[in-house]
Task: inverse folding
């Protein structure tokens, strides 16, 4: 369990769009700014006034979590009262727990959280990283290396004939036009470039399919390399999808696509939003659980 160091000054946080949450349960609220007015030509886009009250988030013991918005992020934490003399911070697999004296006001607690925001957000990510890396395979970038592609291993070979990159889907072999003595970074860059090209092509196809199912239109889409989210959607119809999704089976990609497109009807993570996701992707719970245990920053091609 991580314990808090000396308090650090508050730090500015990056602005974000409405993101696919890594840890939020269906019916819960995720960190997101208030949606802007919907752009013309986006049928069914919900404005802020249509967002229903969110369901409360619960800690593993069933108690209600508190929430604090810091900049553009919303932090959920469990608060415990005790006879201790100071405010204590602890982070483990269940998230952030704050133990405070009974006489300390909630305003004082929130001030302390704000002052320690950099440490808190850093440690939350570090904890998840430490847990997941125990089972994370590392790629040795050389002839014969294997990388995950659509849920299956693809073997990388060097010295492609005719100096052209080729992919044999039947044999699951990616041939690179590089010499056997190629530097590992060269190999990694070429494989990553191919994966990103495949992501761009495939994600576009899946977006078209699910947009038609839901009856919505998105404005543009692009790949992202975000370290903390799989996708995002703005109220004006701009969608971003993490290219590393190409490592997962098609069903996982379809879930993220369905998730982001559903934001064009519900710019929130309310129960009504999850019902919208389920209407075009009924198996979303299983896919969501898979992504929950695989944060983007832990995938092997980074």
Result:
């Amino acid at each position: 369990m991580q314990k808090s160091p000396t308090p650090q000054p508050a730090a500015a946080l990056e602005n974000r769009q409405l993101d696919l949450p890594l840890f939020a349960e269906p019916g819960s609220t995720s960190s997101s700014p208030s949606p802007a007015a919907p752009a013309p030509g986006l049928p069914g886009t919900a404005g802020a006034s249509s967002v229903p009250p969110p369901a409360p988030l619960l800690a593993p013991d069933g108690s209600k979590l508190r929430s604090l918005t810091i900049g553009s992020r919303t932090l959920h934490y469990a608060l415990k009262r005790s006879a201790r003399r100071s405010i204590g911070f602890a982070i483990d697999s269940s998230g952030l727990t704050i133990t405070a004296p009974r006489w300390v006001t909630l305003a004082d607690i929130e001030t302390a959280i704000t002052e320690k925001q950099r440490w808190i957000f850093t440690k939350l990510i570090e904890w998840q990283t430490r847990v997941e890396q125990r089972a994370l395979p590392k790629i040795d970038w050389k002839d014969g290396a294997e990388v995950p592609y659509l849920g299956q291993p693809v073997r990388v070979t060097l010295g492609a004939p005719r100096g052209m990159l080729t992919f044999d889907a039947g044999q699951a072999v990616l041939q690179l036009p590089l010499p056997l003595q190629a530097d590992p970074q060269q190999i990694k860059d070429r494989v990553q470039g191919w994966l990103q090209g495949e992501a761009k092509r495939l994600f576009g196809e899946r977006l078209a399919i699910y947009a038609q199912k839901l009856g919505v239109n998105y404005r543009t889409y692009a790949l992202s390399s975000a370290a903390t989210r799989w996708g995002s959607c703005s109220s004006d119809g701009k969608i971003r999808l993490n290219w590393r999704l190409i490592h997962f089976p098609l069903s996982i990609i379809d879930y993220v696509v369905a998730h982001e497109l559903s934001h064009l009807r519900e710019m929130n993570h309310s129960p009504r939003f999850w019902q919208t996701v389920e209407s075009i992707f009924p198996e979303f719970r299983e896919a969501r659980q898979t992504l929950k245990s695989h944060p983007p920053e832990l995938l092997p091609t980074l």
In short: The CA atoms of residues 17 and 234 lie 6 Å apart. Residues 2-135 form one domain. DSSP finds six helices and 13 strands in the chain. Residues 1-17, 21-54 have pLDDT under 50 and may be disordered.
